[in-house]
Amino acid sequence: MTEKYKLQKVLIAGAGAMGSGIAYLFARAYPEATVDVVEPSAQMRERAQEQFARWNARDTARDQAKGITTSSDCSNRIRLFPDFQKAATDYCLLLEAVPENLELKKTVFREFSTRAKADAIFASNTSSLSVTSLAAVLAKEQQANAIGLHFFNPPRVMQLIEIIITENTSPETEKRARAIAADLGKKAVVCRDAPGFITSRLGIVLLNEAIFALQEGLMSAEEIDTAMKLGYNFPMGPLELADFIGLDVVFAVTQSLYENYQDPKYRPCLLLRKKVEAGHLGRKTGRGFYVYGDK
Ligand SMILES: NC(=O)c1ccc[n+]([C@@H]2O[C@H](COP(=O)([O-])OP(=O)(O)OC[C@H]3O[C@@H](n4cnc5c(N)ncnc54)[C@H](O)[C@@H]3O)[C@@H](O)[C@H]2O)c1
Question: Which three-class secondary structure state does DSSP give residue 260?
């Protein structure tokens, strides 16, 4: 059995769909670690706090049913802060899960740069943006420790982490990232830095194409999803999945692939753009390609 990777202090930026799940994963996998989360929205901090308690109760009950004695409530080791000034320093791992916008992510990495321990790992959960240009805002000696850790939604459930390595990522950092993925109970695949890596490059084309088919009136949303679930054995249809990911995220990733590859096959569908402009972002706002009852 390989020895568990040691992590004492973790900092996550963003407590949205991804950041909150990732923070919980780290707190649960590393009982000796404190996990700090910076999230500017009071509503999102409140939501994350409730989720941590709910997930912990569920996991503890599951462990007890299997006869496993769970140590302390891991949600007590996650602290939420409204800004970086309130957070600490000397973090061993700093991971950003803020919206898919390179300039915003660079601002966060600059904050990370001043709050990290000497050998800290700098990770991004970006779905499509250049980890190389994001890492370029770090101090020269920190750039070898920068890596993409692309989790999937919801992070507690999905088995994959796509690890993204840049020209400057050291083999030691890649090794540490693989060890962390194993500690979190995930399967890792490693991809060289390129727009959309493998998963978004392939997946987004399908989602965007399904939206084009809907726009062209070929089938209803339900029929498109049924066709792909029953015809291809997909667990979710592409439009359901787009709503689940968040249409703002899908749009940002499609736009980024289009800009980076300069290839019309990635052009975002107009219907997707209009949904985002209208604030119909999928499950998180209660309406996207479908309408959801609880919002
Ligand atoms: N949603 C998905 O299915 C999915 C899957 C894999 C990767 N991703 C990637 O993860 C990242 C986050 O996506 P998400 O779906 O969690 O988005 P989200 O909109 O649900 O959450 C982003 C959070 O970041 C917060 N935020 C904004 N500015 C901030 C700042 N300066 N510092 C700290 N927090 C800040 C926002 O208030 C928000 O709560 C994106 O890069 C996205 O591409 C998303």
Answer: helix
